[in-house]
Task: inverse folding
């Protein structure tokens, strides 16, 4: 199976990736913020033990034993959170062989496991992570309250402990200036929208993270169904507005799209912000059938590969970084 | 031999073309402004007669018998002047088979003959047009004054009747902001500088016409030598400033150059002004050895082929014209 960041998947011109995350804690051990180093080490070992007979090729990485650069790379691949990268207590991440599942140990909760796939793959991600969760539950004694459900360090996760999030590409919704009203209506349905790079409807590259707000008082199926509904409506709206935009702007939109591809193939200096804008135009062009020589999969991979900690050169110099980013983009998408 | 507008030639990254023009009149016939239609017709026939035994494949085009569009196309290829295109009296242009020589009859003077070549080809252009002039002189009785030389309708052409002009591409001189002082110094040496598209150092595409001011009191050899000197100095200065600019701006200059090539290969809408700017960057890139898949010859041809009267479509609609221009550029330079 392809890695999430080097794949495309269903509805991939609008939904770049789907992630389902579960929060779990082990009974009778204090939450990470309060635990001793010894207890923390013990939890890491317990998790390792629980996975040892599972046939998914998990590999263990101890956060304190890897360099700050490696930690940063794990964050850029979304295997760990920035919080875990800064953790001072014994902590770890277990990553499955195909990189679809990662399990953080001793972040805010003892266990935060996620499955992540390219495209709109809510069902698949949910099944994969549920399977891992059930397997671990056989060996670990989860902290569960009969009335409230899974107990978690932060109240927002109590209950199902589930968070589903989609990285969505919504240029037409933003350009039609309906983003703010749509997003606020979604908030009332318990759905949160965050800019992936910068806040609000001005987010660079028109990329947004859409996720559920509540984990308590509704079951996992209800949460999943509701979010699926909202995302399907967003996809339909985005498609409708893309058609309308293309119809209205015609050649001037095509001009902007095709030039974006041309610039990606030839630039010698490329900032992250400009790259994301050009990628957005190219994704739009692919979905309109104007561009067929650039794969969405490659754009997804480049977003990770050209992140600061992944760049081979120029980590300390913005100009060199922009040069290296431009070189990598040219190499991958052909110039 | 290649046509001047579809060729490159010596020093072609700086000197796009060289033109040598001679003005002649026939003795005892009034200048065009004062002549009768009968006399005008007679002069056209006399010129045709004088060329009939010359082995250059001249073809005659009578201005009054071609459409305004065809006249405009002749102007865009620089075979005739805008003045001749508007002439109401019998008048004509004779164009040699290889299109290097054109002879206007009954423009401001009875005869204005020019040789035009791509690149820095002063000597060649002078020899070719002198040869045509000598041949015609055998059959025509030129108006010559013993003291002043060839008589012409406008005093600025009296004497040798020669005008040498170069189309030059001077981006580095302009960007170093030395253009105005250089051009005014050249004026004192009897050399005129005009923007090809717009005036002064802000001329679109950094294209200038450099020509001699005086035709009287100096002989043809002196005029040619002096202009050759000035152009050689301009070429040297432009090369020196291009190196300095490249050294100073490095990757950010290369970025601008390479993106320009990328945009030309992908745009769907392209105005003349933007095309000239992008062509200028690409020519600069070719001369720095950064671009090797675009031929200067093709850029020269496109400047003529994408002129309004040469475009196949959209002559009456600026947006369609920009679309057609973009299409032609993509087709010729590959996208």
Result:
């Amino acid at each position: 199976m392809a890695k999430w960041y080097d794949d495309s998947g269903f509805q991939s011109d609008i939904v770049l990736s789907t992630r389902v995350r579960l929060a779990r804690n082990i009974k009778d051990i204090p939450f990470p913020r309060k635990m001793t180093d010894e207890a923390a080490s013990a939890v890491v070992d317990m998790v390792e033990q629980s996975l040892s007979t599972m046939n998914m090729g998990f590999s263990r990485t101890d956060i304190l034993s890897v360099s700050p650069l490696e930690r940063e790379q794990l964050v850029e691949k979304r295997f760990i959170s920035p919080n875990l990268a800064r953790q001072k207590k014994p902590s770890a991440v277990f990553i499955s062989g195909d990189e679809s599942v990662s399990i953080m140990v001793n972040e805010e909760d003892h266990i935060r496991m996620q499955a992540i796939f390219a495209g709109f793959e809510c069902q698949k991600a949910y099944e994969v992570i549920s399977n891992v969760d059930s397997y671990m539950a056989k060996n670990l004694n989860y902290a569960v309250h009969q009335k409230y459900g899974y107990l978690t360090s932060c109240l927002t996760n109590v209950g199902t402990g589930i968070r589903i999030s989609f990285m969505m590409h919504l240029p037409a919704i933003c350009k039609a200036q309906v983003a703010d009203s749509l997003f606020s209506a979604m908030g009332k349905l318990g759905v949160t929208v965050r800019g992936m790079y910068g806040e609000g409807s001005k987010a660079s590259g028109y990329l947004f993270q859409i996720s559920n707000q509540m984990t308590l008082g509704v079951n996992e199926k209800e949460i999943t169904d509701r979010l699926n509904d909202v995302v399907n409506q967003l996809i339909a709206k985005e498609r409708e507005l893309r058609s309308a935009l293309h119809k209205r702007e015609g050649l001037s939109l095509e001009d902007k799209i095709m030039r974006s591809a041309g610039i990606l193939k030839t630039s010698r200096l490329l900032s992250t912000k400009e790259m994301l804008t050009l990628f957005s135009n190219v994704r739009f062009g692919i979905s309109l059938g104007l561009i067929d020589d650039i794969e969405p999969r490659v754009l997804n991979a480049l977003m990770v590969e050209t992140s600061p900690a992944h760049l081979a050169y120029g980590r300390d110099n913005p100009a060199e970084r922009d040069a290296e980013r431009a070189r990598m983009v040219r190499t991958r998408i052909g110039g």
Observations:
- Chain B has a mean pLDDT of 91.
